[in-house]
Q: What sequence folds into this?
């Protein structure tokens, strides 16, 4: 179970130049192709939507819609989004995907959700793969008392970024056949066991306490790089990476 401590190290460790995380894909590419679509931009947007559908589902549920309607609304929203119905509304000066996505959903719920527009369950074309069962199970695990649906959306957005970074970290360690090492060190990254000591882990791994400290430092640094790369996929310019990271740490810390 991830905790708010999962991102605390990012204030001081793992800092890399955000420019290194930028490529020609994801949100910056989508923004540049808003008026003239391209296959690359379409794929980048679809990937972002596949990753970040759950924060929107949480937002719709917290607005009072039941699970079935929330799934239908979220699916219909992405159908319209991916067909470029909404991309023309992008304000290039407000380039964060998080900001755009929430504003677009608010607009969708206010303007487009009417009885005559309702997507019949089983009758619509699936655009983004939503896991119907896990969506509601995951929603029930969200905090019961949040001040606003917007705050819950942002909290879940931040946690999704953390989870994506950890997923990539696991893939890297699996690739070099060192998952056992990652699993032993991960509590120092996520804060799941605050009472755990370097000496205890060292005894488990047959490593010295100093070697464990070095391994944890490197793990945090690499995770910091991966987290910034995930954030870079959702903002319009490298300058926004650290700003977005600071904001999301603040959201989780509330």
A:
């Amino acid at each position: 179970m991830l905790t708010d401590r999962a991102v605390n190290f990012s204030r001081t460790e793992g800092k890399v130049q955000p420019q290194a995380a930028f490529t020609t894909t994801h949100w910056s590419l989508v923004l540049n192709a808003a008026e003239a679509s391209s296959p690359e931009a379409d794929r980048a947007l679809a990937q972002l939507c596949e990753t970040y559908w759950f924060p929107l589902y949480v937002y719709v549920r917290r607005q009072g819609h039941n699970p079935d309607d929330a799934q239908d609304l979220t699916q219909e929203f992405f159908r319209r989004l991916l067909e470029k119905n909404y991309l023309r509304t992008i304000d290039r000066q407000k380039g964060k995907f998080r900001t755009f996505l929430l504003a677009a959903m608010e607009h969708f719920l206010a303007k487009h959700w009417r009885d005559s527009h309702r997507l019949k369950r089983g009758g619509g074309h699936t655009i983004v793969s939503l896991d119907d069962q896990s969506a509601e199970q995951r929603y029930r695990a969200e905090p019961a008392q949040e001040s606003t649906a917007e705050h819950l959306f942002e909290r879940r957005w931040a946690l999704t970024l953390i989870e994506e970074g950890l997923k990539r970290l696991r893939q890297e360690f699996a690739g070099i056949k060192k998952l056992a090492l990652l699993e032993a060190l991960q509590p120092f990254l996520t804060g799941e066991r605050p009472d755990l000591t370097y000496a205890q882990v060292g005894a488990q791994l047959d490593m010295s306490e100093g070697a464990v400290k070095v391994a944890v430092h490197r793990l945090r640094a690499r995770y910091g790089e991966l987290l910034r790369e995930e954030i870079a996929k959702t903002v319009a310019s490298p300058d926004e990476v650290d700003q977005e990271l600071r904001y999301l740490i603040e959201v989780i810390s509330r």
In short: The two ends are 18 Å apart (CA to CA). DSSP finds ten helices and no strands in the chain. The mean pLDDT is 80. Residues 151 and 183 are 31 Å apart (CA to CA).
